[in-house]
Every structure is written in C-alpha cells, then in structure tokens.
Specification:
Elements: E1 2-9, E2 14-20, H1 22-27, E3 33-37, E4 45-53, E5 58-64, H2 68-74, E6 81-82, E7 84-89, E8 100-106, H3 110-122, E9 126-133, H4 142-147, E10 151-156, E11 163-164, H5 167-176, E12 183-187, H6 190-200, E13 207-210, E14 226-229, E15 232-235, H7 236-239, E16 242-244, H8 250-257, H9 261-268, H10 273-292
Parallel strand pairs: 8-9, 8-12, 9-10, 10-11, 12-13
Antiparallel strand pairs: 1-2, 1-6, 2-5, 3-4, 3-7, 4-5, 13-16, 14-15
Length: about 290
C-alpha cells in the first residue's frame, strides 16, 4: 500500500498529491510516469510524475478528476493509501545539450511541462515557459513554473489573466521577436500539441510532445498505447511518452483516444464500488485521527 502524505487542491478539478514511494522517488526523472490502482479491483491509470523528493521518499502527482478512478482518488485524503503505485515507467525527457528552450504547457499539461522545465533549468539551459489556460480560475502552478524559468508567459483564452490568446500565438510571437530556440517542448491537449508543432515546423526547431494514448499495462505488452510516429508504430509506454511532434499522426491519436468516451461518461455518471471504497477509507482514516487525539 502507498500512503497519501499530503493533498492540495490546485483548482476546482485539479488535485496535487504527494505519495509515499521511496524507491520511485530515488530513480524517477522528468518525463517519466507511474501507473496507479486504487485497489485490487480498480483500473490501471497512468499519470506523469510532477515532482519527487528523494529525501522524504515522496512522488508528486497532479491530476484532473475526469473519470471514475481519478474522481475516486480525488476523494481520498491524507493518511489514506492506494493499492498500487508502479514506476518509474517510460523514458525521461531529453535535456542534455540544449541551450535555449521553450516549454509550453496547456491546462493540466502544465503539471507535466513543469518537471521538464525544472530539469532543463537545473541543467543550465535558458528556459522560457508558456502556460496556457481557458481562464483565470483554472491557473495552476504559477509560482512553481516561474521559479524554474527565466521568463514565464501566462495566457488565457478569455484574457481574464495574463495575456489574452493561445499558446500558439505566444510561441509565434517569441520566435518572431528573434528567439532562437533549439528545442520546444509542448505538453497539453492533443490539438494544442498538433498546432504548436506546425508553428515550429517551418523553422526546423526540434519539438517534443508528450503523448497520452489509451494505456493499460505500461510495459509494451498490451499494445493499447500504440501511436504512429514517422509512419511507424510506436508504443508510448516504452518508446515514449516523448516523441518528435513533427512526425506524430495526431489525427489518428485523437480518433483512438475517443474510442471509449461513451463508456467513460457512463462509468463516471454512476456511483461505483471504487468511489464507495475510497469514501469508506477516508472516513475510517478520519475516525482513527480523532481517536488518536
């Protein structure tokens, strides 16, 4: 069992948790992910590692409560424990040899972009970061991103905070202003990554995207996370999750990710045993805490 050490609500739908997982904390690098399972009956859900603290033995995950398992996890509290927390999985983000980098995050994708920016910043690269959100109410990790970048640009679709516009517009403006990036990292919704790759393509700027296809085992055995990159089949769990954005078949990825939308909606709209179990565990932990006092 893996204990939830701390929990923080970043906005109405996004939660940050520190999980006690010392072996993963010692080995994980930016760009890698874990797969969690709430209990022995739960589904396997991949989440990118947002941060680690090897000294404390904790791994930070940041997730949006959108499906049955993430909703159930969001209802758990400090002191509760989840059954499985496996990792680190996947390949770490490339950071060696880059001098001038722009890291772009969209929405919850900023939680994945942040560790990459942090690793590059620590490696001595000049890091510009663009963080895009629909509006002011869902902005997350602003202070954390500012601390690991030389320039942070926050954009909102409606102009309620930062600069009004899309991350694609801001990246184009920075390139037009003379910034000579040798790497762009784009992480967020699939359409956002697709169009950011088109912004950088004419300039020949290497562009890495972190893909989130349907995934089950995380070891390359099931084949569920297959993506087409450069006309060849790749598996995001073992060949990625980072890929060359100029070679990804984004349209195919979008189609595959939408296969089970109806089932996901049905699952999330009905009370289930996992939700009941998480609520029961939280209640038990709360009672135990009262007794200790």
């Amino acid at each position: 069992m893996f204990k939830i050490v701390s929990k923080r609500q970043l906005n109405e739908a996004v939660t940050l948790m520190d999980i006690e997982a010392p072996y993963i904390a010692k080995k994980a690098k930016a760009g890698q992910f874990i797969i969690f399972r709430i209990d022995e009956y739960g589904e396997r859900i991949p989440l990118t590692i947002a941060d680690t603290d090897p000294a404390k033995g904790t791994v930070t995950i940041i997730f949006q409560a959108v499906g049955t398992s993430t909703i159930a996890l969001s209802k758990m509290n400090e002191g509760d424990a989840i059954a499985d927390f496996v990792g680190p999985l996947g390949n770490a983000t490339e950071i060696e040899g880059y001098k001038n980098v722009c890291v772009v995050g969209g929405g919850v994708g900023c939680a994945i972009a942040y560790p990459s920016a942090k690793a590059l910043f620590k490696a001595g690269a000049h890091v510009d970061m663009i963080a895009g959100f629909r509006n002011k109410d869902i902005v997350i990790l602003e202070d954390e991103m500012r601390a690991v970048s030389h320039n942070l640009y926050v954009t909102t679709d409606d102009g309620s905070y930062g600069e009004k516009g899309f991350v694609t517009n801001k990246l184009q403006a920075l390139i037009d202003a003379g910034n000579k990036y040798d790497l762009v990292i784009a992480i967020g919704p699939i359409p956002m990554m697709k169009f950011l790759a088109e912004v950088t393509r004419p300039y020949g700027i290497k562009t890495l995207v972190s893909l989130n296809p349907i995934m089950i085992d995380g070891t390359g055995m099931c084949g569920g996370c297959r993506v087409t990159v450069g006309g060849k089949i790749r598996f995001a769990c073992v060949d990625g999750p980072d890929f060359d954005g100029h070679e990804v078949d984004f349209d195919e990825l979008m189609r595959r990710n939408s296969y089970y939308k109806a089932q996901e909606r049905e699952s999330a709209s009905h009370p289930c045993r996992m939700l009941a179990a998480s609520e029961k565990a939280s209640a038990a932990a709360s009672e135990a805490s009262k007794e200790d006092k």
